[in-house]
Amino acid sequence: MHCRHCHQPLDVPFVDLGASPPSNSYLTTAALDRPERYYPLRVAVCSSCWLVQTEDFTDREEFFSEDYAYFSSFSTGWLDHSRRYVEAMRDRFALDSGSLVVEVAANDGYLLQYVTAAGIRALGIEPTHSTANAARAKGIEIVEEFFGVALAERLVTEGRSADLTAANNVLAHVPDINDFVAGFARLLKPAGVATFEFPHLLEMVTHGQFDTVYHEHYSYLSLTAVDRIFAANGLQVFDVDQIQTHGGSLRVYAQRLDTGLRTRGGVVEALLRTEVDRGVATAAFYKGFQSRVDRLKDEFVRFLLDAKRDGRKVAAYGAAAKGNTLLNFAGVRHDLLPWVVDRNPAKAGKFMPGSHIPIVDEDRIRAERPELIVILPWNIKDEVMEQLSYAREWGAKFITAIPELEIR
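Structure (tokenized):
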């Protein structure tokens, strides 16, 4: 395979998680009787531009189907993060009723609802039908298409150039990263700003966050790689924030390369130097990740086997994509983890892809009173433990497997 940005051969291996079905392809009862598609889940590194990326085996429509089941609004912490983002952007860039905010990957309107509440015009771009309809139900206009240069140019022709674009946790999700980024350079007004949030590769490697690897995540991003990709496609990074979401993320601020007037902040250069010092642009940085991943997997399986041997009742919370990566790589099935709770009604009554573990509602926890509750979306563990604090009444403990097996 060749790099999806610079087209050089991928020559540095990173991690191989075997084969698994798409992580957001939840199964109905009827689907359990049909064959399930598995794809290799391997990640490699381009030593020319240092973009970390999955090997491709199918088209994006396989992963982002019309019944896509990830809805952003079911995390109260994420909603609070989004509300604070809108307030900060409004104040920093003087957005008002005459401004237009365009969010790419608007999902169920989790963020744009705060834009419209602030009296600012909003437009969402969201290719998955299920989440697009949820956003429309909130009164948000949605263009139900994949984003790229062609769509950006059409919107500009329609007079819908953007003062601010938001792209949260979507830059990793695009197979043609050049076309995607170039679309923002077309869509922005001359003085417009584009923000992108994505999990930081440095945190992923440092803390062994291998469960962020799944087929929908085509790229794993450092500022080093993003800065090069943006510059090649008409954008300039002028600022960056390090934020706590998803186990450690970056919020990158960019402007048009041809018209942007903002001075590039020293924090950008400082973080680029940090990445260089840590070795992000060397093959040695990626060596050894596989062995760490294997150890974390083995520890998790050993914990579940010990719990089964001891007759302890185990359940899981959060039918998250990262949880599916962990369960399928570890080979965990319902004999070790009999059910998983999720608040999203689009997932309730379905089954986890690959493992076929049933997804149930939260009442099951109260009814069966498990002794051990595995939190699969470990990045929101504090939120989940607060939500399920009543389980402490019968002595339940909470478990996370990443970045280390922890029992609380």
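The domain at 291-407 is CATH 3.40.50.720 (Rossmann fold). The chain has a mean pLDDT of 94.
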